[in-house]
Amino acid sequence: MSVIFDYRTEKGIILSGNPAEVWSDWQGNGEKWLFFAPHDDDIVAGAGLTFLAGINLGVDVHAAVVTNGRVGYCLPELKDTIVQVRNREARESFHFLGLPESNLYQFDYDDGNLPHNAGRWFTNDPNDTRAIAGSVGLQNTMVWLLRKVQPTRVFIPNRLDLHPDHSIVNQELIMSVFHAQGLIWPELGPPIPHLPMLYEYATYNDFISPPTLRVRVSDDLVEKRLAALAIYKSQMQIDLVVNEIRKAGGNEYLLEMAFKVYSAKKYESLF
To answer: Which of 41, 170, 185 is CA-nearest to residue 118?
Structure first.
């Protein structure tokens, strides 16, 4: 198995099998990658080769699935059991990819209306399975996990993906990174010591600007990704995505994001 990275810069393309020569601010043995997915199959579908590359490099890889897949049934007889089916499929697929079970986080937000769970609010419901430290909401969940894992890199869905579950995870994650490095909500853990690098992966739609990183892998890893995706037998509607993955072969693309905090100085030269 082999992995090559191509990093596109203003001065040209850097090509190397050594991640330290390609990935910005490489931390060596301290690398931790955290992949966020709105749905259980999004990581392997949108960033499966990057995920496998990280595992094969010995990186401490983590995966977070935000929704429970409640509305993702394709057969009438699965309507009442789809949550359990998708939970099992996700665990089997991530295990097949080589992820330790302790590094998989599955949260209980309903899919299909995820934008209604933006932000953070308090709850007194002892039966709310989404609650952490007495609060609910995507920012509550994401800040807690960012502080727990303290990742060096975070991978999130493309902001232009038309699926509203995808775009809201992108939006809420960026806000949560800002919160996680501050002192707000101390019950969710101590602030992260540094801002992680952020990368978008594409599932349904093109990137907002040309990708900056290409991950190229050997055929054995391509087949492993396809086999892990095939474990999601209940998800019959993703055939179009799978067909595009087959066409791409051993190539996968990422867009490195800059976490830019507003500064008035940037605009002085315009006036």
So the answer is: 170
